[in-house]
Amino acid sequence: MPSEQCLGRWRKRVARGAARKRRSAIAVPPLSSYLACSIGVQKHMASETTLPTAGFGTTSSAPYDLAVIGGGINGCGIARDAAGRGASVVLFEKDDLASATSSRSTKLIHGGLRYLEHYKFRLVREALMERERLWAIAPHIIRPLRFVLPHHKGLRPAWLLRLGLFLYDHIGGRKLLPATRTLDLAHDPAGRPLKDDKARAFEYSDCWVEDARLVVLNAMDAAVRGAAIHTRTRVAAAIREDGLWRLTAEGPQGRFDIWAKALINAAGPWVGEVLNGVIHTNAKAGVRMVQGSHIVVPKLYEHDRSYIFQNADGRIVFAIPYEQDFTLIGTTDRDYHGDPAEVVATPDEIAYLCAAASEYFRQPVTPESVIWTYSGVRPLYDDGASKAQEATRDYVLTLDAPEGEAPLLSVFGGKITTYRRLAEAAIAKLAPLAPWAARAEWTVAGALPGGDFPVGGFDTLVGEIAAAYPWLERRTATRLVRAYGTRARDILGDAKSVVDLGRHFGADLYEREVRYLMKAEWARRAQDVLWRRGKLGLRLSKAESEALDDFMQDAASV
Ligand SMILES: Cc1cc2nc3c(=O)[nH]c(=O)nc-3n(C[C@H](O)[C@H](O)[C@H](O)COP(=O)(O)OP(=O)(O)OC[C@H]3O[C@@H](n4cnc5c(N)ncnc54)[C@H](O)[C@@H]3O)c2cc1C
After folding, report:
1. Does residue 122 belong to any structural domain of this protein?
2. Contacts for 322 with CB less than 8 Å, ≥ 6 apart
3. Rounded to two decimals, what is the model's pTM?
């Protein structure tokens, strides 16, 4: 969590200074469907649970087709894909959706240039192919980003960088993203914030994603396709019984059992704990936890491109424009052996990132200038690599399906970028065992909620919202479209002035948005709204955040 002192300092500073409609193969259901699902069997609006109307799973005679443990990107992506193929699906998340690794990434939809050095051509190609596909299904939360890679004498030679970027441009089906070009840093604005010793740079394309929102949008779409999403509900036990899985879950509804024909363990850093402590298999966990931390500082430069810096230790560090007023710098790569729920950026990591950025920027980056940090644990497959940064980022799916018993599939590793492909691969593994899993793949063409507008249509949509609600500040219209896409209209509804948005909680957050997040997106606490559904936590004071939390708890209990 951010240091309140640092955020307070920053806030004061800011206060002072202050075409073609893409038609998806599968229609995006209207908001009312999400709200109906969210309300589920409970009458009040703030349900942690969405239950399908058909009443699957509560007895062994009508089991779910699939149970998923884990509401990160992989669990939610799998649940959505399976529900879209007609499976009855239940998903359990012990905390909030995206509360673990999937909200703590660098937020890039990228091939991973450096993985080419490790000859991971399949991984890089698959990830590169996903960039434009994901951008097309979620053009509100995904956008193209250009990366400036300064050439540094003494590190990787220019010919190697050129070769890597040539492959990067050509092996991944790039159609819309601009190609690589060479920059003269003496004349390009990208050179201005950098020290003078870098003369030349390469500039290439990848994409940015609001990672936690990608998770929530997958869960929303899974729910509207009939999946039961239980947040804040931990799977405490899973046992095989009469050819089925019997899961015991604990959450706001108390302790209850459900039955399912197949189980997917997508518990991220807890995948091993679920295997050993929840399912009680003897399987070797095979997970290597690698910590990565980021720092956020007041913005270091004015243009909208990112930097990718090579370090003398062989690692790379990104500096990315963040939330209009900040620069995000990350990440570290070190083995982690503690409780994944407790991971925080250490002073060493903060110092490392500051030093790495200061090697390149004229303006030194110091730990004192850090206003927020976050840290996550990559749940990588343990391939025996000696260094943390060399451990494979590829995903590994293991299937345990003894004759006559219900199958278990466990997910190791992966990236946000490849979650959709991972879901397809996971379901393909179940295809010989489950008829629904053999149905056609569909997610490549299915827009995520709010993403039913053309790529490149972002500014037009902001313009439409601004014209329909002329009293709304442009900055707020942009933020709402970035977060909710076409569904921004559902939040603003019939509001005729800012007064109609209800109670003001700080920054540009109003009651209507909060109620929408509670109804449609499983938000229950201020943290869910401020740090996962968006990043307004950077702008609200501690008192404002507490007031929001009180409001949400009251609203949930009505
Ligand atoms: C520092 C860092 C930077 C990264 N940058 C990028 C990037 O730029 N691009 C990219 O593509 N990838 C990136 N990644 C990788 C990516 O973030 C992860 O691969 C991905 O988020 C993993 O998702 P997951 O669903 O497997 O795990 P998680 O998001 O951790 O989800 C697992 C969920 O399971 C839940 N759970 C665990 N046990 C139980 C239980 N018993 N019952 C119910 N629920 C349970 C947990 O609460 C958790 O929410 C990065 C990762 C890190 C750490």
Report:
1. no
2. 296, 299, 328
3. 0.92
CA of 439 to the centre of ligand 1 (A): 27
- Does 70 sit in the ligand 1 pocket, CB within 6 Å? yes
Query: Taking residues 148-162, what's their average pLDDT?
Result: 88
In a domain, 393, yes or no: yes
Q: Is the CB of 378 under 6 A from ligand 1?
A: yes
List of residues 6+ apart from 451 with CB closer than 8 A: 28, 137, 138, 139, 140, 141, 217, 485, 486
Relative to the CA of 267, which ligand 1 atom is closest? 34
Please check whether residue 216 lies inside any domain of the structure.
Answer: yes
Strand-pair partners of 98? none
Q: How many helices (H) and strands (E) does the chain have?
A: 15, 22
Domain with 99, as residue range(s), is 44-107+210-286+382-450
Q: What one-character DSSP code corresponds to residue 477?
A: H
Q: Which CATH number goes with the domain that contains 417?
A: 3.50.50.60
Q: Which of the four pLDDT bands, split at 50, 70 and 90, describes residue 57?
A: confident
Question: What single-letter DSSP state applies at residue 64?
Answer: B
Q: Are 490 and 481 in contact (CB under 8 A)?
A: no
Query: Would you say the CB of residue 102 lies under 6 angstroms from ligand 1?
Result: yes
Work out how many domains the chain is built from and give that number: 1
Rg (CA), the chain: 23
Residue 60 lies in a domain: yes
